[in-house]
Amino acid sequence: MSILEDISKLKRVVGNTPMKCSWTEGVRVCIKLEYSNPTGSHKDRIALAMIERAARERLLDRGGCVAEASSGNTAVSVAWASGLLGVRSVLYVEKESSPLKKAMIKLMGGRLVEIGDEGLDIYRVVEESEEMGCIFLDQLRNPANPEAHYYETAHEILVQTGHRIDALVMGVGTGGTIMGVGTRLKEELGNTLIIGVTPRGSPLDPRGPGSTPSRIEGLASRTIPPLTGWRSNVIDRIEPASEEDARSGVRGLAKEIGILAGLSTGAAYYAFKKLLKEGMFSVGDTVVLIAADHITRYPDILTRL
Ligand SMILES: Cc1ncc(COP(=O)(O)O)c(C=O)c1O
Q1: Can you give the pLDDT at residue 117?
Q2: Structural domains in the chain (count)
Q3: Are residue 31 and residue 54 in the same domain, yes or no?
Q4: Are residues 130 and 158 in the same domain?
Q5: Is 175 close to ligand 1, i.e. is its CB under 6 Å away?
């Protein structure tokens, strides 16, 4: 069986995640539970999509090697998919990332390289990957990232909501999810409001970047993700959130909706509640959030919530 056949088999267990809808002050809030994917995050979709693209372009086959840099979730997904496909993986992960994610990468046979305070030197990483005979997947620039969300995540959201979506609220990491889903929703529905959430003080913060931006694992705090320019006029508004805002969102989601999501989802829920209070949404509106991962992935945060 070819690697492409194996990839299409694996795709059958990724996506088609459930959605939980409830009502808050007359507004329907629908949360797509992406933590139901095999490794527990939305990144399983893009790991497979980027590997598939490389295989289709005949850059990758069994016995080959892929490399990726990530705050952890994409690295876990790449380690998972490549392990099952007989491909080696080298994953560059921030030292500060969840120890659970690092343990999962090792468990699945991925080679973990920790990035320290010096930050990620993308040129060095690409060069090193090539020296090791690996293809650098590059989720920050790879069009397979937003395309996976455009064709799959967005399609599922449209079906699950009955094609009724007034707003999407999503944290911006690589920007792949918000750009892919946002583009499709705008194309299909015309007027869906696309709201990005960013760590307070990041370069995307409308109030301007700060010297010490908040850190919300998975969201871009020091750079403007290149994929946010993948299509024009997709993101209508950016809401900043501090780490404490994200924690309060995690608590709110757990108590009010019964969803135990990670910090980036907490940040999106905080932004939703803030905008609801400000009168951004009308009675009868449907607002979609995407629970990228689960709070149990962050035991240190969970025990200090
Ligand atoms: C937990 C979490 N939430 C949100 C995001 C943002 O998703 P995207 O990279 O598609 O913007 C990421 C990305 O790594 C993430 O790990």
Answers
A1: 73
A2: 2
A3: no
A4: no
A5: yes
Which is it for strands 19-24 and 27-33: parallel, antiparallel or unpaired?
antiparallel
Q: Same domain for 126 and 262?
A: no
Separation of CA 198 and ligand 1 centre (Å):
11
The residues that bridge with 69 in the sheet, in sequence order, are 92
Cβ of 26: how many Cβ atoms within 10 Å? 11
Beta bridge partners of 89: 66
- In this prediction, residue 1 carries a pLDDT of 87
Beta strands 286-291; 193-199: pairing state: unpaired
Identify whether 142 is part of a domain. Answer: no
Q: Identify which of 42, 102, 260 to mutate to test ligand 1's pocket (most ligand atoms within 8 A of the CB).
A: 42
**Dihedral, CA of residue 78, residue 42, residue 158 and residue 24, to nearest 10:** 180
Would you state the pLDDT for residue 121? 83
Amino acid identity at 156: E
Integer angstrom CA distances of residue 105 from 34, 44, 52, 110, 299? 19, 13, 20, 5, 17
With the most atoms of ligand 1 within 8 angstroms of its CB, the residue from 219, 263, 294 to mutate is: 219
Rounded CA separation 305/294 (Å): 14
Say if ligand 1 is within 6 A of residue 140 CB.
no
Give the chain's residues under pLDDT 70. Answer: none
Q: What is the rounded distance in angstroms from the CA atom of residue 126 to the CA atom of residue 130?
A: 6
For 186, phi and psi rounded to 5 degrees?
A: -65, -40
Q: What is the pLDDT of residue 21?
A: 98
* Spatial separation of the C-alpha atoms in residues 122 and 132, rounded to whole Å: 15
Does the CB atom of residue 90 touch ligand 1 within 6 A? no
Regarding the beta carbon of 176 and ligand 1, being less than 6 Å apart is answered: yes
Domain limits for position 7: 3-36+149-302
Q: The CATH number of the domain where 64 resides is what?
A: 3.40.50.1100
Any domain includes 143: no
d(CA 218, CA 187): 27
pLDDT at position 252: 98
